[in-house]
Amino acid sequence: MISKIGVTGAAILLGMSAPVLSHDTPLNDAQIAHVAYTAGQIDVDAAHQALQRSHDARVRAFAETMVRDHSAVNQQALALVQRLHVTPEAKPTSASLTTQAADAHRRLATLRGAAFDRAYIRNEVAYHRAVNNALRATLIPSAHNAELKSLLESGLALFSAHQEHAEQLARRLR
Fold it and tell me: What is this structure's pTM?
């Protein structure tokens, strides 16, 4: 079941890109669902780390938005795969995302105060850019199920707004 992915720790990715997501293609819908859920959970976990470490109201508000929005999309994904009786499948991509996330979490854990806030938001910009590119270039085009494709497209619209918000916040935190 998708809820047992086991993403460990709060984390964000640095350097995740569409090629990382496409290196082990082709992906089927069950694998796409697993990758998308994993990516969403990673951002939820990263936001929890920010909520534990940041004292900046703007950063905390952004992190709260990430928890709310990515959790909601992941709940929709869970409902969809359950309704379709699909068992999400792990691929090396999901494991790679999790490993990169754990590394990023450890890097951020060494930072404090404004340095943490700036690094977290810079990583959120890079993370959303990479996830959005992967959605556009790999995940959406590879999805066969119309409902899964629609959910990914809705996620892309929301996550593009997240990227823009993170970019604006990054400019303010310099």
Answer: 0.83
